[in-house]
């Protein structure tokens, strides 16, 4: 994906003919890069052997592992944009639920009015952009740490969600949405999966092949260097927070399409897995950088592990155990990759 | 205190070579020398930060101390150090800062703040300092902060004095450059007060006038050796400067061109901000201008204000026939007008160490690599490779992380990052700091070549040899104003060094003249 990966693309032949020393170094890099795929494979084989035979079947993969995770995939992809510019966005999960609830309230038969999807969906995305802008305003103008700002705005959104939904789960969305998100399938995988993949491709393209992507990277890695190279750092950070807000809002719409309802509490369960996947993804494919392909793989890895444990009859709390452990281990791993520099949160 | 035969080598280079020094009780002893003469190394050896080479001896109040010293051991020997940056925590109170040493060393279960406060006030009164112990350090003036840091250090050695009767030695490492004139006077009074109590003070400074005023004797270091110990009352300013610089054969100099009187292509007018006051600089095509001065004189701030990296309080930049207000300058506008800045903080502000050479070097010219479907990574790689070859980056591997290159090669990469944009005005801050001798020549060559192609270069540096090697003209700053202008055959290492050492006196004379003129 980045240059490092391009080398991988160009050099697979080199180790075969090259010197032993060079081949050895390449092995280390390759192992680092593709380790997550390997780990995923090991998890699949493990549960295939230990678990019930139904685990290793296409429906398990098409419906549960790939099919049901469009929302988490999108949320993770939203998250890696501000992480790349060096900002944390804890409000994404709350933007997701609020967007879902807004959609329900405006589109559903009860409530204010019955607005069409084509109006409500853009409205939700604009809401996401505005929350991103608000986050950026406090982070950039007042120089408050992003963790604090997004924790606060997230809580505000949560309050608004409870308010507009009267703390109820709302159901009864326009069937067209459900149709286009989960009912229609390609290779028996719901369309939601392909939306997330398409988004991943777009982000990958932006990160790797546009000047904007390069600017994101420099702003995250060296704010002063970026500033002295003529990059408008504040604007780049604001854009990235707005992008994450908009994508999180989109993920909220997909979540309504997936479940047919909006639950004011459900989104909170997604924040940790998204962080776990983003950090785990940063140890793979392009080690040391938040990257879309690594993030997508990380989601699959986490979901496969949890699904496998559920097949073995484990309780739902394993989800928390598994995701939490994955987050801490992922960050520990990425520290190893980066040579154990102290992670700075300021 | 007696120091005998101290030596310290780093790699092959001897930073200290058989240095001996004696400080008498109740004496203010000056320690002088140019940058790199070994002053800081000597201080660091005494504070236990570096260990000296074998053969050195240290005697304090008649007692032999075995070497090397462990870090922190100086406290038990009755020594205390105040560095230029004072080591105060700005967001804590004066009282908390005063006791921080104790908090680090002792585990007291109860701190009696009332008693601590009374003791602090008592101490401040003794030295006639009106400092409020409950004020935050960030809220008290710079002068009081410096005085407070010195008093705190003196309090540290007092414990030792009470235990053994040794009056103690206080090391002040360049305490004055950031102080206003009145502040320096207060600081000297404090030093005199401390000496009256029987302690010795070692006063490190670049400023010959200050040394003449406050010290009893002074030791001058040059190239890691003692160039002489002078009794201040018997020495003159010229004698000091001669001892600091030494007499050496002039090394070969590149021919400096005298362009004054030629057409002015870029002009900086009325620049004020930070330390800098109302500075005017005129620049001519193909010129390399050096800026220098003692630490705290503000010469390097000019670069950052011209580039828009730090805001100026007033001033204009005329470039390409347009005039820009420097209070509203931004790096983006500067770059659009062909201004480039190579900051001295190479890994923090110049380039990103953990990104590759290719990432770093292509940042300024990304537009060149757009093909129909986006950035062409292949072209970026090739461009980085070619640039590396041109500036002789070793090893020339675009995929290497910048931080894995040596300092010299990092600098070549960052210089290339800007030179490929063929800037109109190239601003360099300490371009060869931490750059090895070989690479240094290549950096010089790259700068000279850029100037020949018409780029105007401003180089801020405290390395006089470097200024002499590449500059056509050198401006010397003191307290934020230009006090000396060296052109043509005056641009030599020794001449720059001498004039820089004299810069504070010239500045003071000018200020006094202005004050006399003022009231009329």
Dominant shape of chain A: globular
Count of alpha/pi helices of chain A: 16
Order of adjacent strands in the largest pleated sheet of chain A: 1-4
CATH superfamily of the domain at 70-266 in chain A: ABC transporter involved in vitamin B12 uptake, BtuC
Topology record:
The complex is a heterodimer of chains A (346) and B (520).
Chain A: H1 3-10, H2 14-17, H3 20-50, H4 58-66, H5 70-84, H6 92-107, H7 117-141, H8 146-165, E1 170-171, H9 175-183, E2 185-186, E3 189-190, H10 191-209, H11 211-221, H12 223-228, H13 233-259, E4 261-262, H14 268-281, H15 292-311, H16 318-337
Antiparallel strand pairs in A: 1-4, 2-3
Helix pairs in contact in A: 3-15, 5-10, 5-13, 5-14, 5-15, 6-7, 6-8, 6-13, 6-14, 7-8, 7-13, 9-13, 10-11, 11-13, 14-15, 14-16, 15-16
Chain B: E1 2-10, E2 13-22, E3 28-32, H1 39-46, E4 57-60, E5 63-65, E6 79-82, H2 94-105, H3 113-126, H4 142-164, E7 169-173, H5 181-196, E8 200-204, H6 208-214, E9 217-222, E10 225-231, H7 237-245, E11 266-273, E12 276-283, E13 288-293, H8 301-307, E14 314-319, E15 322-325, H9 331-336, E16 339-342, H10 346-350, H11 357-362, E17 370-371, E18 374-375, H12 377-390, H13 407-419, E19 425-429, H14 437-452, E20 456-460, H15 464-470, E21 473-478, E22 481-487, H16 493-517
Parallel strand pairs in B: 3-8, 3-9, 6-7, 7-8, 13-20, 13-21, 16-19, 19-20
Antiparallel strand pairs in B: 1-2, 1-4, 4-5, 9-10, 11-12, 11-14, 14-15, 17-18, 21-22
Helix pairs in contact in B: 2-4, 4-5, 13-14, 15-16
């Amino acid at each position: 994906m980045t240059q490092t990966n391009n080398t991988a693309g160009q050099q697979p032949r080199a180790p075969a003919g090259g010197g032993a020393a060079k081949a050895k170094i390449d092995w280390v890099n390759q192992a680092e890069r593709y380790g997550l795929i390997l780990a995923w494979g090991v998890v699949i084989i493990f549960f295939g052997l230990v678990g019930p035979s139904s685990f290793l079947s296409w429906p398990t993969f098409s419906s549960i592992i790939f099919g049901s995770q469009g929302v988490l995939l999108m949320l993770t992809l939203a998250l890696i944009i501000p992480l790349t510019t060096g900002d944390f966005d804890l409000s994404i999960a709350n933007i997701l639920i609020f967007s879902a609830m807004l959609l329900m309230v405006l589109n559903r038969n009860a409530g204010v009015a019955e607005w069409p999807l084509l109006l409500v969906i853009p409205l939700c995305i604009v809401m996401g952009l505005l929350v991103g802008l608000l986050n950026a305003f406090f982070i950039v103008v007042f120089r408050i740490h992003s963790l604090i700002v997004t924790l606060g705005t997230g809580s505000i959104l949560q309050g608004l969600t409870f308010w507009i939904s009267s703390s109820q789960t709302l159901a009864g969305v326009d069937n067209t949405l459900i149709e286009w998100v989960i009912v229609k399938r390609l290779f028996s995988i719901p369309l939601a999966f392909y939306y997330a993949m398409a988004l991943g491709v777009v982000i990958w393209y932006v990160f790797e092949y546009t000047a904007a992507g390069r600017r994101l990277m420099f702003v995250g890695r060296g704010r002063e260097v970026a500033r002295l190279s003529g990059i408008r750092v504040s604007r780049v950070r604001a854009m990235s927070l707005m992008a994450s807000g908009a994508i999180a809002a989109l993920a909220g719409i997909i979540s309504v399409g997936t479940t047919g309802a909006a639950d004011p509490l459900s989104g909170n369960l997604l924040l940790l897995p998204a962080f776990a996947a983003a950090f785990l993804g940063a140890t793979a494919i392009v080690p040391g950088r938040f990257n879309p392909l690594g993030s997508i793989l990380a989601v699959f890895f986490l979901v496969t592990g949890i699904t496998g444990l559920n097949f073995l009859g484990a309780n739902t709390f394993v989800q928390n155990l598994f995701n939490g452990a994955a987050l801490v281990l992922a960050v520990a791993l990425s520290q190893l990759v980066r040579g154990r520099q102290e992670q700075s949160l300021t | 205190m007696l120091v005998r035969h101290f030596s310290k080598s780093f790699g092959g280079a001897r930073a200290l070579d058989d240095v001996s020094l004696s400080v008498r009780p109740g004496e203010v002893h000056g320690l002088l020398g140019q940058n790199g003469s070994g002053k800081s190394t000597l201080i660091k050896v005494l504070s236990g930060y570096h260990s000296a080479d074998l053969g050195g001896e240290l005697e304090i109040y008649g007692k032999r101390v075995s070497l090397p010293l462990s870090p922190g051991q100086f406290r038990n020997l009755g020594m205390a150090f105040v560095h230029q940056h004072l080591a105060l925590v700005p967001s804590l109170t004066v009282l908390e800062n005063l006791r921080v040493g104790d908090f680090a060393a002792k585990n007291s279960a109860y701190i009696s703040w009332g008693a601590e406060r009374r003791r602090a006030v008592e101490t401040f009164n003794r030295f006639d300092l009106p400092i409020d112990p409950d004020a935050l350090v960030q809220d008290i003036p710079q002068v009081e902060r410096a005085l407070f840091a010195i008093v705190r250090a003196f309090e540290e050695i007092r414990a030792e004095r009470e235990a053994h009767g040794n009056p103690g030695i206080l090391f002040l490492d360049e305490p004055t450059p950031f102080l206003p004139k009145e502040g320096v006077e207060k600081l000297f009074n404090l030093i005199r007060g401390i000496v009256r109590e029987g302690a010795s003070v070692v006063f490190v400074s670049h400023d010959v006038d200050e040394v003449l005023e406050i010290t009893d004797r002074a030791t001058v270091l040059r190239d890691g050796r003692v160039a002489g110990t002078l009794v201040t009352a018997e020495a003159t300013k010229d004698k000091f400067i001669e001892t600091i610089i030494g007499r050496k054969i002039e090394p070969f100099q590149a021919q400096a061109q005298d362009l004054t009187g030629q057409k002015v292509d870029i002009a900086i007018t009325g620049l004020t901000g930070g330390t800098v006051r109302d500075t005017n600089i005129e620049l001519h095509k193909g010129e390399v201008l050096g800026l220098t001065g003692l630490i705290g004189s503000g010469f390097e701030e000019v670069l950052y204000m011209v580039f828009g990296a730090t805001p100026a309080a007033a001033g204009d930049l005329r470039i390409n026939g347009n005039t820009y207000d420097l209070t509203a300058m931004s790096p983006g506008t500067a770059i659009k007008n062909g201004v480039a800045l190579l900051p001295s903080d190479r890994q923090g502000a110049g380039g990103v160490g953990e990104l590759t050479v290719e990432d770093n070097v292509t940042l300024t010219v990304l537009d060149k690599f757009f093909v129909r479907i986006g950035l062409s990574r292949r072209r970026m790689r090739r461009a980085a490779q070619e640039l590396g070859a041109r500036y002789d980056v070793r090893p020339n591997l675009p995929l290497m992380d910048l931080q894995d290159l040596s300092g010299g090669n990092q600098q070549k990469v960052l210089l290339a990052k800007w030179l490929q944009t063929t800037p109109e005005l190239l601003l360099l801050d300490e371009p060869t700091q931490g750059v090895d001798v070989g690479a240094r020549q290549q950096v010089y060559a790259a700068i000279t070549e850029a100037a020949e192609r018409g780029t105007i270069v401003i180089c801020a540096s405290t390395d006089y040899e470097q200024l002499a090697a590449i500059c056509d003209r050198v401006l010397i700053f003191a307290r934020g104003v230009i006090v000396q202008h060296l052109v043509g055959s005056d641009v030599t290492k020794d001449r720059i060094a001498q004039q820089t050492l004299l810069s504070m006196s010239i500045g003071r004379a000018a200020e006094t003249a202005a004050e006399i003129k003022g009231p009329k």
